[in-house]
Amino acid sequence: MPLAETSRCSPSELEARLRLHLLPDIGPKHFHTLISAFGSASSALSAPANAWRSLGLAALSADARRSPDIRDGASAALAWLEHPAQHLRMWDDLDYPALLAEIADPPPLLFIAGNPSLLNKPQLAMVGSRRASRPGLDTAEAFARSLAGGGFVITSGLALGIDAAAHRGALASGGQTIGVLGTGLQKFYPQRNASLAKSMIEQGSAVISEFPLHCSPQPSNFPRRNRIISGMSLGVLVVEASLASGSLITARLAAEQGREVYAIPGSIHHPGAKGCHQLIRDGAVLVESIEHILEALRGWQSLPPAPVLFEPDAHLLIRLLHAAPHSSEALAGASGWPLPKVLAELTELELSGRVASENGRWVGRAV
Fold it and tell me: What is the pLDDT of residues 237-288, one digit of tens each?
């Protein structure tokens, strides 16, 4: 397999790095420690076990170096890289993502399915709840459409909910998007978004992972994945998140990495808005339009006007639902209309796709 023109290592060193990367308990910190101590992955693999133990590495990792499974895994990765749409970036490659290289623990290897050039384009991360409300999903798609349509790459985690909506919005505008997995690229998770990932790759976007190709979902992998989402991006927009959401981890990592954090507020009655409100109290930029994001990013791209999420002259019921979800009875009280009229209007609005019913309450949808 021909190495990428930007790679600084030989084929034998590439194989050694793939083997090192497959060893148990060898995360980014230990990987870099071994390369620094021995000068190369090849030398690290041939060093005596006591030399590894002197670096504080577990005997399990040292003893596994000669395992047939490790050799076979490296060979399988080399075979995977022979496909023209499948790539690898190493932390010392010339085109390793420049912003990601600045974080405290950059991934030593990144597997890429799709377009590798996106990793060095200006990116904005969008994250949020897996169980997002319909308005939250609509808002994520609208923001992603406008930002991607203007030239920013939208980066997210390909999870259900807000992540998927952000990826879809970017694609809908003809823009580009990057999905960062918490699994290996050949163990895609969640499967419900596999077709979305396929569409992303086919349309010139990319799906990436720092994990070995056959790495299965593990809870500890997803916070690690989040540091890549924030690390590659100029800023992170949290669209909708509860206080327990993993999106708040991404926002914290972004702040630690010196990235801007943006949050979209919501109803005080909506649990999915509480995480965003907490971020705003902690200093995140309150966002109501993309202009609030672009104020700090002028000079990167020329973007179109902010998206109109709801019509300025919207129907009275839509204005009420934009402020907060309501039951039919609550809408009757707030609008001053009789309940039969409210129900008739809601039926028309639902048929036109402008409102939706969720768990007994009505919500407004973006245009």
Answer: 999 999 988 899 999 999 999 999 999 998 888 888 999 999 999 999 999 8
Closest CA to 207 of 135, 115, 98, 93: 115
Query: How, if at all, do strands 206-209 and 177-180 pair?
Result: parallel
Tell me the residue range of the domain where 347 lies.
316-364
Would you say 166 and 137 are in contact if contact means Cβ atoms under 8 Å apart?
no
Pairing between β-strand 206-209 and β-strand 109-114 as defined by DSSP bridges: antiparallel
Tell me whether residue 104 is in a domain: no
pTM, to two decimals: 0.82
DSSP letters spanning 17-55: HHHHHHSTT--HHHHHHHHHHHSSHHHHHHS-HHHHHHT
Q: Indicate the SS3 state at residue 286.
A: strand
Among candidate residues 285, 218, 281, 278, the one with its CA nearest the CA of residue 248: 278
